[in-house]
Specification:
By secondary structure, the protein is an all-alpha fold. The longest helix has 27 residues, at 29-55. Helices cover 66% and strands 0% of the residues. It is elongated and about 60 Å long.
């Protein structure tokens, strides 16, 4: 267990040192930090937009969207296999 923990700390330290060198680089660190902030912001905006779009769907539209993604014949995921779905009891 001790060797695994030491290796994990070594790898973590290496990754942390590499990231520090990249982002604190006096010549290109500012550009890298700005790019990271821009990409993270874009990711959050895209994710938020997708969540908002999905929240606006009614049950029928959501069911059709799930079917178009390749999932079919699912009545409810809230029951055990072989037992009837709660809405059919």
């Amino acid at each position: 267990m001790g060797e695994k923990q030491d290796l994990g700390r070594f790898v973590f330290g290496g990754v942390l040192g590499t990231l520090g060198a990249l982002f604190l680089d006096p010549q290109q660190g500012r550009r890298r930090r700005k790019e990271l902030v821009d990409r993270a912001g874009a990711l959050f905006r895209q994710t938020g937009a997708r969540v908002y779009d999905m929240s606006q769907l009614d049950d029928v539209t959501l069911a059709r969207k799930v079917e178009t993604e390749g999932v079919r014949d699912v009545e409810s995921l809230l029951h055990l296999p072989g037992t009837p779905a709660p809405m059919h009891q």
